[in-house]
Amino acid sequence: MQYYHSLINGKWEEGEGSFEVTNPSNGEVIASVSKVTLNQMKNTIDAAHSAFKTWSKKLAIERSRSLFKAAAKVREKAAEIGTLLAKEQGKAIKDAEKEIIGAADCLEYYACLGVNILGEVPPPNAMNLRSIALRQPIGVVFAVAAWNYPVSLISWKVAPALAAGCTVIVKPSRETPLSTIEFVRVCNEAGLPAGILNVVSGENALISNEIFSNPLVKLVALTGSTETGKEFIKASAHTVKRLMLELGGHSPFIVFADADLDRAIKDGIKRSFRNTGQICNSVNRIFVEKSVYDQFVKNFVEGAKKIRIGDPFENPAPDCGPMVNQSGVKKMEEFIQDAKTHGGRIECGGKRPEDPKFSKGFYFEPTVITNVTPAMKIMMDEPFGPIVAIDTFSSAEEAVIKANNTRYGLVAYVYTSNIKKAGWVAENLEWGNVAINNISPDSLYAPYPGWKESGIGLELGHYGLDQYLEWKNIKIEI
C-alpha cells in the first residue's frame, strides 16, 4: 500500500494519523494519506505568504515559463497520474488520462494569459492629476479539489492563481486525494520555487478553521456542493475573504419536437450517465415536447439499457464505472424510493447490478424515471449519480418555467432546429451556461458562471484570471 503526505514549503511532511483511500471498483484500500496537524497548517500558510512576496514580484514572463514547464511535466506523466485517478475515482482509464491532459492544457492557457494582465489609465478629474489603475495578485489562495474531477477542476484554480502571481495551498478531496497530490508533485518537480504550490490533507474542520481565521489567506476557491459553499460563505465573514465558488447543478435538458431526436437522445444519454452521473453539469431532468414524448422515452430507455458498466481498466472501456463510495449508492436508493412513493415509474435500472462481479464495488445501474411530479426529490435536488427523470411540456414558456424551477443555475441544454426559439429560450433560462444542440457547455476560453445557488465568481477564460487579481488606483500629481 502506498503512503502519501503533505507538501509544505517544498518538503513532504508526515502528519499525525491517516485516512485510507478505497478503490470504488472493488472496495479495496489502495493508499493511506497522513493528516496534517494544526502547526503544519500554520506553517503552510506562513510559507505560502513568504513565497508570495517573491513570486508576485517576478516578471509575468518568468511565471509563464514556470507554468509551461509544469504543463509539459504533467503531460509527460499523464498516464501515471491518470492510472491513480482511475483507481481512486472509478472513471474509465481513457477518460482519466484525458482529464490529466486537460489540466496540462489549462496550465498552458493561463501561462499565455498571465503575460497579458492589463491595467488602465482613466481620464483625469483635474488637469494636474493622473490615475494609473493597476491589477495585482491578491495573495495566498486556498483551493479545494472536487472528488469527481480532482485534477481538472484543481487546475482551473491553480493555473490562473499562479499566473496572476498568487501562491496556492491545495486541499485534495478525501475520496480522491491521490491524483491531486501527484498533480501538485509533478508541478513542483518541474521547478516551481518552494512554497508556491503546497498540498495538505486531513481533517476538514481543522484545516478550514485555520484557513478561515488566518488573515494571510486572501481567497478561497472551491468546487463542491452548494451546502459546503454556504458553510464557506459563513466562515469567510470573519476575515472578509474573497470567495470563488462553483457549486451544485441540477441541469435541465429541453427537447423540442423539431429537434434532431436521434442526436438529442444520444447526447442526453451520454450527459446523463457519463462518469456515472457524477458531474456538476450532468443531466438530471429531461423535458420533452408532448408530441414526441413517447418516442423519445422509448428510444432513450432502449439506449440506457445498452450502457455497459464495468471496471475502469476494462478493454474496451466501460460506459459507466462505479460511484465513488457506498454513501453515493445509498443516496441513489433514497431517490428511487422517493420517486416510487410519489408514483414514479422506473423504466430501467433503479438498483445495484445483480452480477456477482460487481458485488464488492459501489455500482448502480443507469436509471430512467417517468411519470414524474414536481414533488419528487429528483425534480428538486441534485442526485449526483446515474439517475435521470423525463417530463413533458406543451410550450416553450412551460419548458422554461419547469427548467427554472430549482435553486440551481449552472448548465442547461436545449435541442431545437429553430434558431429563433433557441435564442428566446436561452435568454429566458436562469442558468449561467446554456448549450444549444450540444453537451459541451464549458471551454477554457469562455466564462463558466453559476447562477443562483450554483456559485459565486467565475472560472475559465480571462475572467478566471481576474478572480485572483486586485485593482489598485494610483493617483499622481504632475
Entry summary:
The protein has 478 residues and is an alpha/beta fold. It is built from 15 helices and 20 strands.
Count up the domains.
2
Per CATH, the class of the largest domain reads Alpha Beta
CATH architecture classification name of the largest domain: 3-Layer(aba) Sandwich
The helix content is 25-40%
Radius of gyration: 23 Å
Oligomer: single chain
Amount of beta strand: 15-25%
User: What characteristic shape results from the CA principal axes?
Assistant: globular
Structural class: alpha/beta
Task: Provide the descriptors you would attach to this structure in a database record.
478 residues, Aldehyde Dehydrogenase, Chain A, domain 1, Aldehyde Dehydrogenase, Chain A, domain 2, 2 domains, seven-stranded mixed beta sheet, six-stranded mixed beta sheet, oxidoreductase, Ald_DH/histidinol_DH
Write the layout of secondary structure elements.
Blueprint lengths: L1 E3 L1 E3 L2 E3 L4 E5 L6 E6 L3 H18 L4 H17 L1 H12 L3 H21 L15 E9 L2 E5 L7 H13 L2 E5 L5 H13 L7 E3 L4 H10 L3 E7 L2 H11 L5 E5 L4 E5 L5 H13 L9 E7 H16 L20 H16 L3 E4 L18 E4 L6 H4 L6 E7 L2 H9 L6 E5 L3 H10 L4 E4 L18 E2 L4 H6 L2 E9 L1
Parallel strand pairs: 1-5, 7-8, 7-10, 8-9, 10-11, 12-13, 12-17, 13-16, 15-16, 17-18
Antiparallel strand pairs: 2-3, 4-5, 6-20, 11-19, 14-15
Helix pairs in contact: 1-7, 2-4, 2-5, 2-6, 3-4, 3-6, 4-5, 9-10
Describe the structure.
This protein has about 475 residues and is α/β, with parallel strands linked by helices. It folds into two domains: about 1-245 and about 455-475, Aldehyde Dehydrogenase, Chain A, domain 1, CATH 3.40.605; about 250-445, 3-Layer(aba) Sandwich (Aldehyde Dehydrogenase, Chain A, domain 2), CATH 3.40.309. About 40% of the residues lie in helices and about 20% in strands. It has 15 helices and 20 strands. The protein has a seven-stranded mixed β-sheet with strand order 14-15-16-13-12-17-18, with helices on both faces. Strands 9-8-7-10-11-19 form a six-stranded mixed β-sheet, with helices on both faces. A three-stranded mixed β-sheet has the order 1-5-4, covered by helices on one side. Strand 10, helix 8 and strand 11 (about 240-245) form a beta-alpha-beta unit. It is globular, with a radius of gyration of 23 Å. The N and C termini lie far apart (about 65 Å). The relative contact order is 0.14. GO terms for molecular function: succinate-semialdehyde dehydrogenase (NADP+) activity. It comes from Atribacter laminatus. Pfam families: Aldedh. This is Succinate-semialdehyde dehydrogenase (NADP(+)) GabD. It is an enzyme of class 1 (oxidoreductase).
